[in-house]
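Appendix B, example 12.
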Amino acid sequence: MAPYYQPGVYHPTWEHDLEVRVKSYDTTGIDDCWGCDQLDIYGKMRAERANPGYYTFRTFQTAECVDRWSSSFPLNACMFGWYWTDHRAITTTHHRTHLELWDRDESSSDDLMNPMPPYDPLFDLDWSRGAIDVSDYNFNHPTLYNWLKFWDSSPIGGCTQTGRANFCLLFTLHEFSPYP
């Protein structure tokens, strides 16, 4: 028997499925060399799950968006795989995500487009508070605690700028009632 999906009011003590998707990025105006074409952007995403006393993480690389200063999902097929999913057990306290945008270079090493402190979460979902912290690393000067409250299980979007690049993510929550 499948768990019962519960739309509407957010319940912090229920289990959830979570999807974190990159909806768009924009690196317009960034050049990595004089006279070069547009950038060939790919992402490196880090997904973390915090539980009392320990945390787990995984890091993966996204597909490349060739010759694009900006892309968006679902308009550009190259972004179909720019997401991660996880299940939130009742004991999970936080989910965090970190995204780096890279430009693939054929003639030299790849270029990082959004420098920031390594593995600092750009988005921190605090399950007990029912909120997402959107950290804005604008030119490496972090502005922390821009909490977006979620009152129900509607998708929540947030955008940030890191250096000269910016991108937007979408968090989708699905609640599962413990009651039959």
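Residues 1-6, 138-144 have pLDDT under 50 and may be disordered. The CA atoms of residues 2 and 176 lie 10 Å apart.
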